[in-house]
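Quick one:
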Amino acid sequence: MGITPVHCRADFERAVMEGVVFALRDSLEILLELGADCKKIIASGGGARSDVWLQIQADIFEREIYRSTSEEQASLGAAITAAVRTGYFANFEAACAVCVKQSQEVFYPKPENVRIYRQEYPIFRNIYTQNEAIFSQIDSMRHNHSK
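Output:
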């Protein structure tokens, strides 16, 4: 939405990152509505190597973002699950307190960016909602073509 001839590759790259984080914010909003305690967000994986990506997250989530020191987060998660299941740790909280480490670097929300994203997030939600019927049509077409 809103593409003009003055937009360049960097604009598209940033728009993709912002769109993904807006979608993740939808999930965060659901967790918060369910009463989850989301005081700390620790980013992991390939995207966590990008300072730009983490700053966008801090600004859109309006929360501090920490970077995991673990390179193999999926393996660590599997090991934590096994350790809890076998009784090595009493629960996930205890396991994470020992096993999950974060860097000292913190990405803080920047007020000037937060103001912009607060205006843009409802627009993102509205665009998505308005396009749900189109997404359904596309899924239906794909399903019919695969038969």
